[in-house]
Amino acid sequence: MSDTLAGALFIGSLVLVLAVVYRPLGDYMYRVYGGTRHSRAERVLYRLIGARPDAEQTWAEYARSVLAFSVAGVLFLYAFQRVQNHLLLSLGFDPVKPDQAWNTAVSFVTNTNWQSYSGESTMGHLVQMAGLAVQNFVSAAVGMAVAMALVRGLARERNRYLGNFWTDLVRGSVRILLPIAFAGAVLLVAGGVVQNFANADDHVVTTIAGHRQAIPGGPVASQEVIKELGTNGGGFYNANSAHPFENGTAWTNWLEIVLILVIPFALCRTFGRIVGQNRQGYAIAGVMATIAIACVVLVNVFQLAHHGTVPTAVGASTEGVENRFGVADSATFAGATTLTSTGAVDSFHDSYTSLGGMMTLFGMMLGEVAPGGVGSGLYGMLVLAVITVFVAGLMVGRTPEYLGKRIGSREIKFAALYFLITPMLVLAGTAVAMATGSGRAAMLNRGPHGLSEVLYAFTSASNNNGSAFAGVTVNTVWYDTALGLCMAFGRFLPIVFVLALAGSLARQGRAPASEGTLPTHRPQFVGMVVGVTVVLVALTFLPALALGPLAEGIHS
Amino acid sequence: MRMPIWIRRHLAAARALLVLTVLLGLAYPLAVFAVAQLPGLNDKARGSYVTAGGRTVGSALIGQSFTDSRGNPLKRYFQSRPSNAGDGYDPTATAASNLGPEDIVDTLPDPALLAAGKQDENASQSLLTQVCARSKAIGELEGADGSRPFCTPSGVGAVLAVFGSRTATGDVPHPTRVVSLNEQEGVVKAPFVAAYKGVRVELARYGEDYAKGLVVPIKGRAPARPAVPADAVTASGSGLDPHISPAYAHLQATRVAAARGVPVADVERLIASNEEGRTLGFMGEPVVNVLKLNIALDARYPTRQ
């Protein structure tokens, strides 16, 4: 079988599986978030937390709960890293230094999982599993909770309330993420992903050539699975999902891509169920799938064509690529990880062809909405749908409506603010970095590729992705601080705007559909949202891309 | 007395975090650990260790170097891919090169330091030169053609700096000076091309600034599909890739067979029996596990060392 055909079948099989689980998983999540009953275990959890699970919250209360929980997460994770040398399973590592601990704490709480550290030489097992991996769960659950609040805002009428954050948090963690993670972790162990508590010094072998080799251990499988499922992306080891102990076979690679994409796509079904029109869910999923398939195919095309000096000399784009995955499946992983907010990598994007690397950048610049992070993808795409009906309304001179909700000046202001945050952070951050000596000194490569590295870093942090053109040296006080701020603003400002939008939508009644109402479930609307998304991003980022990957990749 | 609402909210947040940490950060990984102790899973959960001659020699999933103490390839063993993990295949320092597709100009070493027998810490090879040097070395080791596009016969990137006024499209039709950027005076006798557009090509001198020149890689006449396969001249993402392509295994068969004094056909058969195809016919790429292949070699065709 040719490489191209195998790569195409790989993509096709992913599409098939995601299509098959779309309904059952989406319906299950609908029952989870819409249910009124609490299991006995959940009642115990609510009592321990001290929350009343049926007390509804306004958008402002909901937002304050999200922020309080996230602040607690950052402080706890920071302290955890700073005292790790006194704890069990520390592997003898020193405390993480302050700027790096801040960066890492923000990174994991914001679902970014940008890593300025190398896992195998910095973090003890306890910090990994009880600190970092816990945030992998709860930051994902926070994203889903916020998405549910927005959907309730669209579904409810003349109502001040959006649900209860603590209930949504617990249900998302315990009823959705935990069972899938547990099953996935066992599968990954079967594929060779390790799950133990060994110290690297425990397993020093003498190889058949007579060298000493320290084989690492760790509770990797339990963390690897939630790293993908929660679209987090922070690797247990420095090499992330390229490491054979995180991703040992071609089929674990396939499984990890499924885990990355499964919840973001299925949440569209949940959305459709909650607003009472499944076809609206299909339309949003259609937008996501159109963009996702186009981007993944383009990464594959550019990587397999291996344009550029070094790839031509090599004869393939194999630098930074594992043999067991090959160029095509690695490109598919790269597409999936940057179209979502995951940022796990099974191959190294810095060494990709110029245009292949640009597509990974582009996926993040889209705002990670196709299908995006768990929860954050859905709320991002719904904001884009709101902007699209606004644009369409301007064209025909009617007051725009989405699902019977009027998009007035208050709503469009929140949507516009939501959209403007990340480009501001990305472009201003990159500009400041390029204007300062400590910003420029971090580049590994010269010329346009160096700019791409810095642009990628700020794009990744501000969009809460976490992957990198990893040549850039980011473990400096300057980058740890700057990127930490980008991650925090890039996560929480949009969340506040989304919740404010949700609150304002929930208060409205519903306008009945009339002749002039733009139907938002037809292919025409799908095409319009795709168009608006791509045009907005192109207008914002094309100049920056022209100086980086386009300058490098377009030549004779 | 009731506490202010914002304190109660943060207290709830801290309690929620604590409760979820116990559940998701301790109970869950321990439960996975417990299930991973089941027979069939426990070996994999430990690290897929392999034994040879009654001792543990590594993990089936973690690649190794098959070199002598100075880093030269041991001829009796199949060689792994190049690695950027520490000094090569060091699991405590996994890494990729992260060098880009247009990383083609070397930073040359100070000849004074080299003459004193020291390393120049500031010097670095471009990705292109790394690829060319590996290809040349492997070609010599295996008795194959190690040439590649954009590589000089001496095994560095074939890259010129062309000086002179540029046209609107950025070309330099009438160069005034041409320098071969990766070939250093005193290291190389003559540049890989004598002249470029009628101008004599100079060798590069340490410390000179060539930034004003237009960087032009020269493709040359090497075959577009070189004899040395792609995976043999590029490093993997983790630096721990346990596999090589079947093509690279076949390239090494003749040399391994000669070193062990056995017919090439026998070694080829061993490669074929160790080749792993694509999972389900379409996932991943066909590969050969180097450690397993070398263990099988030692078992079947032992050598005296």
From TrEMBL, chain A:
Q: Which InterPro entries match?
A: KdpA
Where exactly are the transmembrane stretches of this chain? 6-25, 62-80, 133-155, 176-194, 251-270, 282-302, 378-396, 417-436, 482-505, 525-546
Q: Name one Pfam family in it.
A: KdpA
Where does this protein reside within or beyond the cell? Answer: Cell membrane
Q: Which UniProt keywords apply?
A: Cell membrane, Ion transport, Membrane, Potassium, Potassium transport, Transmembrane, Transmembrane helix, Transport
- What's its membrane topology? Multi-pass membrane protein
* Protein role: Part of the high-affinity ATP-driven potassium transport (or Kdp) system, which catalyzes the hydrolysis of ATP coupled with the electrogenic transport of potassium into the cytoplasm. This subunit binds the extracellular potassium ions and delivers the ions to the membrane domain of KdpB through an intramembrane tunnel.
Q: Which family does it belong to?
A: Belongs to the KdpA family.
Subunit info here reads: The system is composed of three essential subunits: KdpA, KdpB and KdpC.
The protein's name is Potassium-transporting ATPase potassium-binding subunit
What species was this sequence derived from?
A: Actinomadura fibrosa
* Classification lineage: Bacteria, Bacillati, Actinomycetota, Actinomycetes, Streptosporangiales
Automatic annotation (TrEMBL), chain B:
Give UniProt keywords alphabetically: ATP-binding, Cell membrane, Ion transport, Membrane, Nucleotide-binding, Potassium, Potassium transport, Transmembrane, Transmembrane helix, Transport
Quote the protein name from its UniProt record.
Answer: Potassium-transporting ATPase KdpC subunit
PANTHER family per UniProt: POTASSIUM-TRANSPORTING ATPASE C CHAIN (PTHR30042), POTASSIUM-TRANSPORTING ATPASE KDPC SUBUNIT (PTHR30042:SF2)
Q: What are the subcellular locations of this protein?
A: Cell membrane
Function recorded in the entry: Part of the high-affinity ATP-driven potassium transport (or Kdp) system, which catalyzes the hydrolysis of ATP coupled with the electrogenic transport of potassium into the cytoplasm. This subunit acts as a catalytic chaperone that increases the ATP-binding affinity of the ATP-hydrolyzing subunit KdpB by the formation of a transient KdpB/KdpC/ATP ternary complex.
Segments of this protein annotated with the region Disordered: 79-102
Classify the protein's membrane topology as the record does.
Single-pass membrane protein
Its quaternary organisation is:
The system is composed of three essential subunits: KdpA, KdpB and KdpC.
Q: Which protein family is it in? A: Belongs to the KdpC family.
HAMAP family linked to this entry: KdpC
Organism per entry: Actinomadura fibrosa
